[in-house]
Amino acid sequence: MEAVCAEFFRLPAEEKAAFYSEDTDKPNRLFSSTTYELGDEKYWRDCLRLACGSPVGDTKNNWPDKPKKLREVVEKFVEPTRGVGMELLRLLCEGMGLRPDYFEGDLTGGDVIINVNHYPPCPAPGLTLGLPPHCDRNLITLLLQSTVPGLQVSYKGDWINVESVPNAFVVNFGHLLEIATNGVLKSIEHRAMTNAALARTSVATFIMPAADIPIGPAEELVGEGNPPRYRTVTFDEFMRVYKTVGARRESVEKAFKL
Ligand code: OGA
Ligand code: NI
């Protein structure tokens, strides 16, 4: 997966151009940098975004057909990777006293979205980030973070480097997991740094909810002396707010906290 994704970004620009789009409604596209509604800052990132059904089936026909092996490799990667995420969600349920299939169904019923993030060498790493501080919007993300360092997480007010472990996933909890567990599990704020020497390609696999389902604290985790800490909203409304206030931990928390 890592090899074929790195190979995609090495294709000549003409071959990638057909897939390039700035239309944020397009589920499959190549885009550059990131434009946030709030600031319009630019970041040092190219991104290939792929929407994958579960199972993949015909959805692979919407992905680039170059490199030749891309569709086959992504399909073989995404199905078991989703399986790992689902198994982790089952284990988290067990730890929290939720029924093991609590997250099965609508909360994980959307497409699996893959972000292949490509950070070219940056001539002035002090001037720009690869990706700004954010928490992912979904329940859980499995990240192949590359052996080139760059990922940092916010920890007790500092940014700390996440050490790269070859052939391992970094597992990120997203906003939805925090809301669904009524704050028992916390979303993790993270960002990507740039470096002057080496290109870095990471692969983030997001298990997404179905489009317009209600998102709120699990009833099982709310009760006497333990009131709901977040409003229940539809995922569409959540996304409208997420896009408006920005993806940072505190702004999203403020917008949904009761
Ligand atoms: C993301 C992400 C981090 C990285 O795609 O949401 O956080 O290391 N990527 O590229
Ligand atoms: Ni992220």
UniProtKB/TrEMBL annotation:
SUPFAM superfamilies: Clavaminate synthase-like (SSF51197). It comes from the Eukaryota. The keyword Signal does not apply. GO terms for molecular function: metal ion binding; oxidoreductase activity. Residues 109-209 form the Fe2OG dioxygenase domain. Keywords: Iron, Metal-binding, Oxidoreductase. InterPro entries: IPNS-like_FE2OG_OXY (IPR044861), IPNS-like_sf (IPR027443), Oxoglu/Fe-dep_dioxygenase_dom (IPR005123), Plant_2OG-oxidoreductases (IPR050295). Pfam families: 2OG-FeII_Oxy. Belongs to the iron/ascorbate-dependent oxidoreductase family. This is Fe2OG dioxygenase domain-containing protein.
